[in-house]
Amino acid sequence: MKKRIVFIGISILILVLLIWYSNPFLLAETVAKSNFNYLILAFGVATLAIFVRVLKWNVLLKGVRFGELLPVQMFGITISNFTPGKIAEPIKAFVLKARKGIPVATSLPSVIWERILDVIVLIILSLLVLQIFGFQSKIIVLSAVSIGLFAALLAVLLFMLHNKNFGYRLFKALRRLPLFNRLSEDFMKNFYESSIGRKRLLSCFALTLMAWILDGVVFYLTLTAIGVTINPIILAGIIALSVLIGVASTLPGGLGSTEAVMILLLGILGVQSTTAVAGVMISRFISFWYGTLIGGLSFVYLSKKIDMKKIL
């Protein structure tokens, strides 16, 4: 807990320094002069992105209605966003078991596939935006390291899903960790008996790509509101690359480091620093913090239905 507080403190400090560096008074003036019609529209697109993220998990699962899955997904995303490397998201499989009685071994493969498809989309969008920035850019080293780390993680996850022996060894190691030590010896057997068809995986990939592009649209509308116009696909790539670098930094959910990279990349495109900070902060408020608020409300709702303290 002490380490977690320290890391969250570092993230908040980075955000404060970014705001201070950009001149808080000019930043406030930029925000005050923004076109609020675009910001309202951005909230609408962010809400659509939330529904798409719930739908993509719904596609991978059977026997769970969208409305029942919504609070579980939002809580899972939120708690994951405040853990290093976003490693806590599998907890939503345990919440789903308590809420609907679906075995963790049945739902966890869908959580893993969600993350795999997220990483694939993020790498694709990151490589796309790197083509625009050029491979001689000063961000290339961080980009290469982050993409390499996530490509390695992707390989491990895919190998685990297709090789039972490796999966059993990995499971044995994971059982030493909190959360995973609750799993029974029969878990892996049931895990590999739960299969997800190719059609559902392709549908989930399309929805995952749509969700991240919608994030790019939110960023586009935010920047447009303060007088900057950049292609939303490029902005989706900036978000993707920033998230990979941010999460690789081991700060909780990449908070602070993600924003710093987004601002740096906008600066490379020629956006003035105060404007870049304003656009990033507003965009992250509409996407990240808005989703976090819904995740918090989801926790309150779920706490009335199941014993969340026992799960956590």
Overview of the structural elements:
- It is built from 14 helices and no strands.
- With 312 residues, it is mostly helical.
- The protein has one domain.
- The radius of gyration is 20 Å and the shape is globular.
- The two termini are 13 Å apart.
What shape does the CA trace take? globular
Query: What's the structural domain tally?
Result: 1
Structural class: mainly alpha
Mean pLDDT rating: 86
**Proportion of beta-strand residues:** under 5%
Provide the succession of SSEs: HHHHHHHHHHHHHH
**What is the terminal-to-terminal distance?**
13 Å
Radius of gyration: 20 Å
Total helical elements: 14
Largest sheet: none
Low-confidence regions? none
Provide the helix percentage: over 70%
The tally of beta strands, per DSSP, is 0
Short description:
This protein has 312 residues and is mostly helical. The protein has one domain.
Question: Keyphrases for this structure?
Answer:
mainly alpha, 0% strand
Summarize the helices and strands and which ones pair or pack.
Layout: H1 2-21, H2 24-32, H3 36-60, H4 66-81, H5 91-100, H6 104-133, H7 140-162, H8 164-174, H9 187-193, H10 198-225, H11 232-248, H12 257-268, H13 273-303, H14 308-311
Helix pairs in contact: 2-13, 3-4, 3-10, 3-13, 4-5, 4-13, 5-6, 6-7, 6-9, 6-10, 6-11, 7-8, 7-11, 10-11, 10-13, 11-12, 12-13
